[in-house]
Each structure stands twice: as structure tokens, then as C-alpha cells.
Known about the structure:
mainly beta; 1 helix; 9% helix
Amino acid sequence: MSQDNYARVTTYVNKCLLRIRFTSQLDIVNHHDINILSFYNDQDINFIINVYSDSNQTTLQFLS
């Protein structure tokens, strides 16, 4: 694995939120600098999206 493929983004979920079932959404975007988590709140689905953008804006170019 080249150094360009290492994940540079992560999401911290406090253990007080462990009752909520979080799911990693690789089916939406599968990129090493984008982390998408989903969770349900009543009937609604919510997303937490973390994006790391390097000095070359590689991830932003991928998204566009």
C-alpha cells in the first residue's frame, strides 16, 4: 500500500453515545480522506461527514 492510500481522517465517538448504532457508509463514498458515518434518530437518518483536505486539495478535487 502506498503512502497516498493511508487514511488521514477519523471520527471519534464518545462512549456515552454507544447506544446509538453508527455505520460507516463506504457505499456512498469510498475514499481514504473521507469518513461518513450514519446513525438513526427516531425515523430520520443523520450523517457525520469528515473530510481531510491536503495542501493540494486532493479530496476536494475528488468530490467535485
